[in-house]
Specification:
The protein is of the alpha+beta class and 279 residues long. It has two domains: 15-163, Regulatory protein AraC (Jelly Rolls, Sandwich); 175-276, Homeodomain-like (Arc Repressor Mutant, subunit A, Orthogonal Bundle), CATH 1.10.10. It contains ten helices and nine strands. The strands form two sheets. Strands 1-7-2-5-8-9 form a six-stranded antiparallel sheet, with helices on one face. The longest helix has 19 residues, at 142-160.
């Protein structure tokens, strides 16, 4: 079963779910959404790409993802069970939410990873189980219980979680070349990047780089580059008054019609429609 990717759609309550990924699961591609996500690895291992960094996650690890951050999980060698919670900060008592973020990660507004020690993992799973039961809408109180349990989750993590270092030490050395490539793309996506140029950054031949890049990130080089460009263009549509053509050119698209077509294909609405109604 694949996790549903909400893209730019909205949520009206706390959403909790569980999914199993494995070697036969179709690859998940980079995506983002307009709400927070807490993703927890219940069993197995997976490769997780968050913005321009590749993390190797296993049982007990979690990732906290802020709105708008590109990410995806990819499980190739074994089955991995993942639990996830989607929510907006308005569903929480905000001072508590912010305090938790400041405790575990002073740079509020950025995604981060962490781990729940083995001693407390069963307790955490019990909390997730309570949330899943209420998510089935037992009665009219279920949404309120979901919000309460979410606050309990935040308190639990504030007390027990171990935050990973900002620069993860668990990146597979075999993928350091692809990590260098993704960082280069994020730093230079406005430029007319070519496969050959980025392959040289990774010190790989274009053919081998193309194959390995897709294996590691779950996306082809061009597709990945377009997603990075689209994400930044999406933000610009909502935060600037620049014309759609100017935004397309600023963020690496030399053809505004191609940008419009690609944007609509990915987000389900034209740039103009998205600017008027992003939800």
């Amino acid at each position: 079963m694949q996790r549903k990717c909400f893209g730019t759609s909205d949520i009206s309550k706390v959403v909790i779910g569980r999914a199993t990924h494995g070697p036969q699961t179709p690859p998940q591609y980079d995506h983002s959404h307009q709400f927070y996500e807490l993703l927890y690895i219940q069993s197995g291992k997976c490769r997780f790409l968050l913005k321009d960094t590749i993390y190797y996650m296993e049982k007990g690890d979690f990732v906290f993802i802020v709105p708008g951050e590109l990410h995806h999980a990819n499980c190739e060698s074994e089955v991995c069970e993942i639990s996830y919670i989607y929510f907006k900060d308005e569903y929480l008592e905000y001072s508590l939410f912010r305090k938790w973020l400041e405790n575990v990660y002073p740079q509020v507004g950025k995604s981060f990873t962490g781990k729940i020690p083995a001693l407390y993992q069963e307790d955490f799973l019990s909390l997730l189980g309570k949330m899943r039961a209420e998510h089935a809408s037992i009665d009219t109180y279920s949404n309120a219980f979901l919000a309460c349990y979410l606050q309990e989750i935040m308190l639990f993590l504030s007390r027990h979680c171990l935050k990973s270092s900002e620069n993860p030490a668990i990146v597979n050395p075999d993928d350091a070349d692809i990590l260098a490539a993704t960082k280069y793309i994020y730093s230079n996506f406005r430029s007319p990047l070519t496969l050959e140029e980025v392959a040289s950054v990774a010190s790989l031949s274009p053919t081998y780089f193309s194959k390995k890049f897709k294996q590691v990130t779950g996306m082809g080089f061009k597709q990945y580059l377009n997603f990075v460009r689209l994400k930044h263009a999406q933000t610009a549509l909502l935060t600037t008054s620049n014309t759609i053509t100017d935004i397309a050119l600023t963020y690496g698209f030399n053809d505004s019609n191609y940008f419009k077509d690609l944007f609509k294909k990915i987000y389900g609405k034209s740039p103009r429609e998205f600017r008027k109604n992003p939800n």
